[in-house]
Amino acid sequence: MKILAIRGRNLASLEGDFEIDFTAEPLLSAGIFAISGPTGAGKSTLLDAMCLALFARTPRTDQAKENNVKLQDVSNEQLSQSDPRFLLRRGTASGFAEVDFMALNGHCYRTRWSVARARDKENGRLQNPRLALYNLDKEEEEQGTRSDLQARIIELIGLTFDQFTRSVLLAQNDFSTFLKAEQGEKASLLEKLTGTELYSAISRQIFEKNARAKEAFDLIRSRIQGIELLTDEEENDLRTRFAGTEKELQRVEKAKAEQQALQEAVRSVEQQITVRQRQQKEATDKLAHATELLTVARREYEKGVEEQQQSEAHFKSLQQEILQARKLDIQLDTAIRDLSNSEQQLKDVTSRKKEAEKKYKAAALRQKQGQEEIARLTEWREHYKKKENIAEQLSALLLHLDAASAARSGVETASRSVETIRQAVITLNKQLAGLQQANASKQQALKQTEEKHRGLEEELKAVDIPALDKQIDKLRQEREQLLIEQARLEASGNIKELRARLQEGQPCPVCGSTHHPFVSNPEADTPPASIATLTLQLQELSGKKETCTANTRRLARLQQQLLQLHKELADSEAACKDIVGKQQLAASRQEREEVVVKEQSAKLAQSLSAADRLFGNNEWQKAWLQNPETFRSALTDFARQWHGNAEKLHQLERQESAQKAECESLASFLPSLEKQFEEAGLLHEKNRTAFSTLQAERKKLLNGRPADVVEQEYNRRMEELKERLKKLLATQTEQSGIADQTRGIADQIAKDLDEASADLFRRKAALDKWNADYQASSDGQPLEAILLRFTQEKTELGFRLRTQTENKAKVSGLQEELNVRRTESERWAKLNELAGSADGAKFRRIAQGYTLDILLNYANVQLRELTRRYRLERVPETLALQVIDRDMCDEVRTVHSLSGGESFLVSLALALGLSSLSSNRMRVESLFIDEGFGSLDAETLRVAMDALESLRTQGRKIGVISHVQEMTERIPVRVQVCRAGNGKSTLVVER
């Protein structure tokens, strides 16, 4: 993982956009660089921007553990003090943090954390932050929710936030975190850096395998315990009872079979009787039906013979009428042909006559229309005779009108420009007057501010602030001493009485002194008055100091106001000069436009005069001035119409003679067509009358039906009657045979019924005798009840015997599986005891113990360069660390006993060791150290710098934030954070 660039906008003291690009010189070739600047300028804000873009968190805001503490935002919203949105600079509406980095997969990505206020207003409510992730190589944005994108970023860089702050970013007061971290946290970080997650997975799988093996063993054991087995004695007793029951059941079943055989014989005979009775009924019904059908067939046959004779007689009477109808049919065919021919001839003559009349009317209409059009065109030309000159000289006239239109447009455009310039000059004059008035007000304000500034400077010069501070400190110390003395006196209850007994020259019973100042100077025994005096003096001096401090702040504000007023006056004077320049430019433009107005007016007058000569008057100008384009179009249309009408008039005059000859020719052809029409009408009427007469005579014969149809109907009727008589004879023969056969069957069925009734009586007597004998031998118990009892008993005993056999087989099979599961469970239990755990921590700690040993080897190499006094070791059987103190005969010390400077050196060595520790999956190529060097002496600082610079050959980039001047001067490449006033800072990359 490698950081390529850090960017941001409006974060804390860094206002506006800022960027640190590690892919451009001089940072590209620098192995180590310094981030320097005064306290509070925004050095750590750069690292905050990096953490915000990657994790939406920062080490500093995470240290605010009291999340229930709320702070007031500018929008009156209450936010938690750990909310990273507080990094947005006050007075700005939006900000962002952005980082370009090379991921573990070799691709370059850009992650961006941004926040904005509502409605893009500085006092708007803070909105939820937005997180975006771009693949720079593919030039596309990855999609997902904030949590999805955050998980994706962690996957790409291979580190969580806590792991990132242990190995890549050592924040302020956080150097010893990894050194003193818990064992699980160390293992997790080492796992990420070395790609040994497999050990955690193996540990969890061992735990899960052991749990599953134990569960499988317990399951089989519980299944065996849940199977119920009988004793051998109980099993033998069951088998004896089963054999006895089975023997009794066979005896009862044999008796049941005998009873069923007798019952079956009775039922068989009863069924035979029932079948014969049904057959007897069917034969009776069949005989009656056959007799009925025979009677109907004989009656229908007699009717058919009678109907056949009547049809033959009727057909003989129609023979003469059929012959006469055939003759009339031939005559009607001839009459129909004649009528059709005459009708077609009449239609042809009528069509020719109508066509000729239509042509004549059309020709006459065209002749009349042509004459009317000639008269109309002649009248129109006479009406516009005076304007013939316009149509003939249209080209010259249009040239003059186009020139006049162009000149008129030029005059109007130039006039509008002159008016616009005049209005602009008036506006500029007003603006200049307003600026001059504002300048006068600002000059007056500047003069007043300068006077106040000079007065405050003189007041401050008259006060010796250092002397005042010393005097305040002196009075405060004296007052504190008097207060202590007063407290001591009050603590001694009889001190005043003892002092009153002292005599000058006599020794004091307490100290032995012969001189007693409190006796010779009674005022020394009254400290409260002195304390009050000192308190008043201290209050006066403090008030004077506060006044000086307030005047100093006022002086700074006045200085700022002076700077602002000077800037505003300079801007105002520049604006005045700009307006004067604009006025001069407007005056010159106005003169040019007025010259254009005069030139175009002269051209307009010249073109209008030339057009007046062609028109013959100037009355046309009114219409032209209203709409020149419409007027020009009207002239063009009139000329086009004049020339078109002249040509059309000549064409109509040529067509008039031809139309007259055509009308005369058509009129001469109409009389002959009228005569042909009359002759064809007379012939058609004659043929129609003849056809009507024949048709009326034919309708009287055979009711108008054709003779062939009448003959066909007769022949078809006779054939139907013959076929019907034939079928009726066959039916009589068939039904007569059926009746004879059915009578014989009925007689045989009656004999069979008598024999079956006698057999049924004998069989019922045998069954009754068997039932009576069995009842006597079984004490009156029903056979079915005995059979059911023995059947149920046999089923129950058989089920218990089968269950016993199956349970024996199950237990035998499960016992073998139980032995296999026991062996497997014991094997996994031993392995789980060694390396298995639910969270994977046990085997991970074992494996990471070796990884930590490798890390300590790297760290001790770095630590020997920093200080030869200490060596890091792993506490045996743990991931905890201990320090070997060489100067104290290799005494083992806890890492918590190191001083601040010593902890920093050891933590720095660990951080450098973590940077060196890598695996096939991950390599940490960036390291940022925030502060911590101030606790080192000069020699140790030099050694630390040598160690950091040695990493340049390993391709790593180290960023150091420090206030130590010697350190920042030694590093050639620096990112300088410069204050710009009002809490603002800017970034400058220096070499």
Topology:
Elements: E1 2-11, E2 14-21, E3 32-36, H1 43-55, H2 59-62, E4 70-72, E5 78-80, E6 94-102, E7 108-116, E8 130-135, E9 140-142, H3 146-157, H4 161-167, E10 169-170, H5 183-194, H6 197-225, H7 232-317, H8 319-383, H9 388-392, H10 394-461, H11 465-491, H12 495-501, H13 517-520, H14 527-615, H15 620-626, H16 628-700, H17 707-777, H18 783-835, H19 841-866, E11 870-874, E12 881-885, E13 891-894, H20 900-916, E14 926-930, H21 938-950, E15 957-961, H22 965-970, E16 974-981, E17 984-990
Parallel strand pairs: 3-15, 3-16, 10-14, 14-15
Antiparallel strand pairs: 1-2, 1-6, 4-5, 6-7, 7-8, 8-9, 11-12, 12-13, 16-17
Helix pairs in contact: 5-19, 6-18, 6-19, 7-17, 7-18, 8-16, 10-14, 10-16, 11-14, 15-16, 19-20
Keywords: Coiled coil
Coiled coil: 235-272, 325-373, 432-492
Protein name: AAA family ATPase
What can you see in these coordinates?
With 991 residues, the protein is α+β, with helices and mostly antiparallel strands. Among the domains are: 125 residues; 153 residues. It has 22 helices and 17 strands. The two termini are 26 Å apart. It holds the Pfam family AAA_29. Keywords: Coiled coil.
Q: What structural class is derived from the secondary structure elements?
A: alpha+beta
Record field, number of beta strands:
17
Main sheet overview: 6 strands, antiparallel
What is the number of helical segments per DSSP (H or I, 4+ residues)?
22
Which word captures the global form? flat
Pfam family, one: SbcC_Walker_B
InterPro entries: P-loop_NTPase
Protein name: AAA family ATPase
Coiled coil: 235-272, 325-373, 432-492
